[in-house]
Design a protein that fits this description.
22% of the residues lie in helices and 20% in strands. By secondary structure, the chain is an alpha+beta fold. Strand 27 (770-782) and strand 28 (785-793) form a beta hairpin. Helix 5 packs across helix 6 (400-414), helix 8 packs across helix 10 (512-532) and helix 14 (626-635) packs across helix 22 (950-968). The longest helix has 32 residues, at 578-609.
């Protein structure tokens, strides 16, 4: 929300920072869009580099993006930018032009919105405070966001009220009138937030730390020491700070001196210049004024608006936590500082916004025992930062909600270790004390707000013990040799006294009452400081002090509640006037409007600024080593992360509005026998109809019933787990939506692992207006695993399953937690409740199946089962097998199903569903509790959670970074080089998950640091030295396909005589005389012929390509083996087997009938063809001129007088002869088209490649490698090839084509894509 700036009470109103604190922002459009922030000596240059996917979406990798649709949703991909910091020499910025006509005052950082990355710079600021000479604070009055990757928003600017020189002819306004539709800047809301006058920065000192925590005499500051609790631009500035940390020391000092990086706080800061006449301390330096300053730092840990941010979180951070420091500097060389804090009541509580003032209901969301760990953590951090803590609680003792908060607050303090005195000391000496001061009751009398000064007598002892911070200039630095005052840079301060404790003040909002009491505490501290020096302040000084605190209250109230503080009239003037009372009424009405209608949008903007939205992509400044570090961390994740298995019990029960079961024994449900001795870490209990759903109840939630059942559950758990080794359970959080309630209990010993507990509800009754139907959800982080529990009560009615589906969709999409986190943004999700899905059978049939306990038939007609199968509800959720009877509807107190007039059909309305790969369900059952018309259902789960040691992870990350930096060196990409390419500098990203990124000229994914690729897989040792182990080629190419084939097989070595027939089939249909083969192989003296050498230039263009449509990668090539073929004279010759190549599935043109002879084609080539595998003698078919070779319709008959049918040979010796032309000419066919070979012997016609989409798979499965002997039975009978013998001499006659349905898929093993292709021979099954 954009607030008007408060009236100034300082003397520097509107004064801009000094010129040496400013920079200039420049831009270069070509060849790459780059933005530079230039000081007088150095420049910080930033350039965005799109990933490959973004470049594809944009259409190119050009710096000026083409017109594209803006997607404002966050993407999980991080935005990478390149950055360079270098001196402005050698005309480095010659190609840049100014981006704004005025100077800028530093950058707040980088942020990504959708696909765009923006640089935020301060364009308008004014000095508002001087804590002491040389330490000034500026208020941010305007910022601008410039897009790094697109020029689309260059002319989309907000109207700057401070730019008096702007006009329509300016470079940014010239195109505004031409726009048909005005475009809203994506960062408009952020721009309004950062420019609303509540953000402050300083380039002189560390503004995030109080004076006591800074070096006393150091004006220069180190960015690394910033307190991120108060650094509001920490998310945006972090990439630049990390880049700074990687610079050399000299460059780092230059970057700090340039004042480019800016740290911003939020809250209030203002100084009063106290003239010498009104100063409480007299100074010998006449005429010099003193400075009185109030500076408030609002924490960003649990930042938010009034009703969106209440109470404490699991990390000990509280809402509206503010550190306020009062400082006073005197020219006499004295510096005084006093700090105090305010913050929300540190228990888990919420408050919904309402239209009636003071009627917003307070809801306690966690029990006192469950709150204690976070409570202790909060005060431990306060004690570490400030010392002893004195709590001043201003809540009312009569209002029920505030009284409940006070009782929980009191309980937490009493059980906190800090409140226990050490040794024999009294409780007054404890580190944690409290004072309950009912502000409204104390100021109700005739004195009015003046009675608030009574707080002094309650806290004066602690105030004296806490003291204050005091530093004083040393005598040797007070003046130089000539007696002149030394400059601020030469002053040296010595700490005299330190503050040793802090007051923590709170009311409900920590605004109005708190600010008034803190004003009194601040005055007490200043009075103590002056009294110790024997001085007193005049009334004018205290008037200025009260004015500063009134302005402070107004500013903090505007941030949190939307309006100025109430009671500010009394704070400012010391009395309450009628005008002040009327102003308070107006402010209260304005707050109601903001809290009900504007705060949600304000909260979303705050979460965006802090980088806390789910899925918000961070900006990464590219470092050549960062990607390597990220990959190494992922690979070594087991070193700093561990997995732990926890048990969870989940139960649901529709109570039918009854309370008579509260005193019953709930053990059969909460502690069933399936659990055994194991004690679950988490117990999630869901209730429906916890109250009667009448018209008076459906609009409100009465927590009384829920609290009764919470106590009943706690009693049952304590009764069953009361052993010595058993842990006690604590109520972590509960939530309620009229009749639906959800309670989460956890073991006390695991509370330290649980954080970020949040609750949310979603109404679905009466179109989302009523709470009779809907869901309650609670999410938590168990270590590093997010878990979500959802209990729901969906629409009733037998035929209303469509409405139930809509209810589920409404809850699944519309239920949101903080930071825009949804149900699906969790690793584990469990839905349970009364889903009201029925069984789609008649009453008699359903009861008969129930009587027969035919659960399978009942489940087949279950509506939820059918809707899940159809994908209409609960997609991707799973349910365990139901082994219990329907849980609805019973007569009260009995096991008989509904016998009333309505006669409802039995159904499983109460269900438990799960989603998450880390969940394993152990049981699923119902319990025999009979006081309701439903039966309770329960399930137990085993959940694997991840626990990350963040400290060890950071240490490993730093070690990897330093080691990698030593290996690679410190070379960086030159951003200003025109020939630099984004993809070469930053790297391509993978087009699919699991694939390596594409390679470039600079980097190759298969090489790392110039190392040769190596395989880490080694084959197992063979059983004998006569064998060797190779990959099993019979395994399916898809590695995920189920198979019984082993990965490796043993084959005889090549020097073994067994290797000559090792590739032959062992099928029972082939009878191979091994002894004959061995003797023939041993007796032959012919040398072994090898295939021609590999010549890649001779391969066709298509060799080695894979079709894009293939789903599975090619199998690894098998080891080259030898096979025996029949040679001349009947001798056996071994030939090398070539590894098979995947076929290219292309249609093959029909061969021409008139073809030249094969012999004539062979004689025209100078080289002999390579050896061709031949069919074994015992499998050769007789070739006659009148009959066809056996087909499945004509079974093969054994004939002892077989003639060898020689296979056709390749027409050419090189591979180019295998490429077919699609015109079907004779020269284009690999074998010619003659059916008659030399000598008049008929050539069997091979089947053509089938033009089928399944040919690829069929060929891969059915056909062995070329040259190998086929295995009998490995090809389907219906898909065996048919070989046709043609009549001798009939060269001009077209051979009869084989039947179309009987065509087989043949693998192309040699690369020819057309014509007739040669596949492997297949053995035919004998009759």
């Amino acid at each position: 929300m954009d607030y008007p700036p408060p009236p100034s009470s300082a003397l520097w109103s509107g004064q801009a920072p000094s010129p040496e604190k400013s920079s200039q922002i420049l831009i270069r459009e070509y060849p790459h869009r780059a933005i530079a922030i230039a000081s007088s000596t150095h420049a910080l240059i930033l350039r965005h580099s799109p990933t490959t996917s973004e470049a594809i979406a944009n259409g190119s990798l050009a710096s000026v993006a083409s017109a594209r649709s803006r997607n404002t949703s966050f993407e999980n991909a991080t935005s990478k930018c390149m950055v360079e910091f270098s001196p402005t020499a050698n005309k480095m910025l010659a190609d840049y032009r100014p981006l704004t006509p005025r100077p800028i005052y530093g950058t707040l950082g980088l942020i990504s919105i959708g696909r765009d990355v923006f640089l935020c710079v301060i364009t308008q600021a004014s000095r508002v405070a001087t804590l002491r000479p040389g330490e000034t604070v500026e208020k941010i009055e305007a910022v601008q966001f410039f897009c790094l990757n697109s020029a689309e928003y260059d002319d989309v600017v907000a109207i700057d009220p401070y730019d008096v020189d702007s006009d329509a002819a300016s470079v940014y306004g010239q195109n505004l009138n031409r726009r048909d539709v005005p475009v809203e800047h994506p960062c408009l809301e952020l721009q309004k937030l950062l420019g609303n006058g509540t953000f402050y920065y300083s380039t002189d000192f560390d503004v995030t730390n109080r004076m006591q925590d800074r070096p006393a005499d150091a004006i220069a500051f180190d960015i690394d020491n910033f307190d991120e609790s108060f650094l509001w631009n920490s998310y945006m500035i972090r990439p630049l700070v990390e880049f700074r940390s990687r610079l050399q020391q000299q460059d780092r000092n230059e970057l700090d001196a340039s004042r480019i990086l800016t740290s911003a706080i939020r809250g209030f800061c203002r100084s009063w210049v106290i003239p010498q006449a009104s100063a409480p301390l007299r100074s010998a330096k006449a005429g010099l004024p003193s400075y009185l300053t109030v500076i408030s730092r609002l924490s960003c840990r649990r930042a938010g608006t009034r009703f969106n941010s209440r109470g404490i979180d699991d990390d000990g951070n509280v809402a509206n936590f503010v550190e306020t420091e009062t400082t006073y500097w005197s020219p006499s060389g004295v510096v005084f500082s006093y700090a105090q804090v305010r913050g929300s009541v540190p228990v888990f509580w919420e408050q919904a916004a309402g239209l009636l003032p003071n009627q917003q209901k307070i809801t306690i969301t966690r029990s006192a025992d469950g709150t204690q760990p976070a409570f202790d953590k909060h005060f431990a951090e306060l004690e570490q930062a400030y010392g002893a803590v004195h709590v001043v609680n201003l809540l009312s003792a009569t209002k029920p909600g505030e009284l409940e908060l006070t009782s929980l607050y009191r309980h937490g303090i009493q059980n906190c270790l800090l409140s226990l005195p050490g040794g024999t000391q009294m409780r007054d000496h404890a580190l944690l004390r409290d004072t309950e001061f009912d502000f409204h009751a104390e100021t109700k009398g005739p004195q009015g707000y003046e009675a608030a000064n009574q707080i002094r007598r309650y806290i004066e002892d602690s105030a004296d013990g806490f003291a204050y911070y005091l530093a004083q200039e040393s005598d040797d630095a007070a003046a130089d040799q000539n007696g002149r005052s030394s400059s601020p840079r030469n002053r040296r301060y010595v700490v005299v006294l330190q503050q040793e404790g802090v007051f923590r003040t709170n009311c409900l909002d920590c605004l109005d009452r708190t600010n008034l009491i803190q004003t009194i505490v601040s005055r007490m501290a200043v009075e103590a400081f002056l009294n110790h020096r024997g001085e007193a302040a005049p009334s004018d000084f205290w008037s200025r002090h009260a004015g500063l605190w009134a302005d402070n209250g107004d500013s903090l109230s505007k941030i949190y509640a939307g309006t100025g503080a109430l009671k500010s009239s009394f704070t400012r003037h010391g009395k309450m006037s009628i005008a002040g009372a009327i102003a308070d009424v107006r402010k209260s009405a304005t707050r109601l409007y903001y809290n009900n209608f504007a705060d949600k949008a304000r909260q979303n903007t705050i979460d965006t600024l802090l980088g806390r939205l789910v899925g918000q992509a961070p900006v990464i400044l590219f470092d050549p080593i960062s990607d390597y570090v990220a990959g190494e961390l992922q690979r070594r994740s087991s070193e700093f992360s561990t997995n732990e298995k926890i048990r969870m019990w989940v139960g649901t029960f529709n109570l039918n509005g009854r309370t008579d079961g509260i005193d019953e024994d709930l053990t059969p449900w909460l502690c069933p026998s399936e659990l055994g001795p194991v004690q679950p870490e988490i117990i999630a209990v869901g209730f429906q109809e916890i109250v009667e759903l009448n018209p008076q109840q459906i609009m409100n939630s009465d927590p009384t019933r829920k609290q009764l059942w919470e106590r009943a559950i706690k009693r049952t758990l304590d009764r069953n787990y009361n052993g010595v080794d058993d842990d006690k359970y604590v109520l972590l959080r509960s939530g309620q939506l009229v009749g639906a309630a959800l309670c989460i209990f956890v073991k006390a010993s695991v509370l330290h692992n649980i954080k970020n507990v949040e609750g949310s509800v979603r109404k679905t009754g009466l179109s989302g207006m009523a709470g009779n139907k809907g869901a309650v959800a609670i999410r938590l982080d168990y270590a590093n695993t997010p878990i979500c529990f959802v209990t729901a009560h969906l629409a009733a009615g037998f035929t209303n399953y469509d409405e139930r589906n809509r209810d589920y969709a409404t809850i699944d999409r519309g239920l949101r937690f903080q930071r825009n986190r949804g149900i699906g943004d969790h690793d584990s999700v469990i839905w349970f409740g009364d889903f009201n899905y029925r069984i789609g059978l008649g009453l008699e049939m359903a009861k008969e199946l129930v009587r027969r306990r035919d659960l399978e038939r009942l489940y087949e007609n279950d509506q939820l089962n059918l809707q899940m199968v159809a994908g209409l509800a609960f997609r991707f959720y799973s349910e365990a097998r139901i082994s219990f009877m329907p849980t609805y509807k019973f007569d009260l107190g009995s096991d008989e199903y509904d016998s009333s007039e309505k006669a409802r059909i039995p159904a499983w309305t109460d269900r438990i569903l799960r989603k998450g790969t880390n969940l394993r369900q152990l049981c699923y059952n119902s319990a025999p509790l009979r006081f309701s018309d439903h039966r309770p259902v329960y399930a137990t789960f085993e959940c694997t959670v991840s626990i990350v040691n963040e400290r060890l992870r950071d240490k490993i990350s730093r070690d990897i970074y330093q080691r990698r930096k030593t290996e690679v060196g410190s070379d960086t990409a030159n951003l200003v080089a025109d020939d630099s390419d984004d993809e070469d500098l930053i790297g391509y990203d993978a087009i699919e998950p699991g694939l390596p990124p594409a390679s470039s000229d600079r980097q190759k994914w298969w090489l790392e640091n110039g190392k040769m690729p190596r395989s880490a897989i080694s084959p197992p040792k063979p059983e004998s030295t006569a064998y060797q182990t190779i990959l099993n080629t019979k395994r399916p190419s898809n590695p995920y396909a189920p198979t019984d084939e082993p990965d490796w097989v043993n084959i005889p070595r090549s020097e073994s005589r067994m290797s000559s027939f090792s590739s032959m089939s062992t099928s029972p249909y082939e009878h191979v005389n091994h002894s004959m083969l061995i003797s023939a192989s041993a007796s032959t003296s012919a040398p072994r012929k090898l295939p021609p050498p590999y010549d890649p230039s001779a391969l066709p263009a298509k060799v080695g390509r894979m079709q894009i449509g293939e789903d599975t990668p090619p199998p690894p090539p098998p080891r080259r083996q030898t096979a025996m073929v029949a040679g001349p004279g009947g001798s056996l010759v071994s030939t090398a087997m070539q590894p098979s190549r995947k076929p290219v599935n292309r249609p093959t043109p029909a061969p021409s009938a008139s073809s030249g002879s094969v012999a004539s084609q062979q004689t025209s080539k100078p080289k002999a063809p390579p050896p061709v595998a031949r069919k074994p003698a015992h499998l050769v078919s007789p070739a006659t001129s009148t009959s066809t070779i056996s087909t499945p319709e004509a079974p093969y008959q054994d004939n002892p007088s077989l003639q060898h049918t020689e296979l056709p040979r390749r027409p050419t010796a090189n591979v180019h002869g295998s490429i077919s032309n699609h015109d079907g000419s004779p020269s284009s066919l690999p074998y010619g088209d003659n059916s008659v070979r030399e000598g008049g012997q008929a050539t069997p016609q091979l089947p053509r490649r089938a033009d089928s989409s399944a040919s690829l798979i069929t060929a891969r499965r059915a056909n062995p490698a070329a040259g190998a002997v086929g295995l009998v039975g490995l090809v389907d009978r219906d898909k065996r090839p048919q070989l046709v013998a043609h009549k001798a001499g009939s060269t001009g006659q077209k051979p009869p084509a084989p039947p179309a349905p009987r065509r087989a898929q043949v693998v192309d093993l040699l690369g020819d894509d057309g014509g007739m292709e040669m596949g492997s021979w297949e053995a035919l099954k004998p009759s």
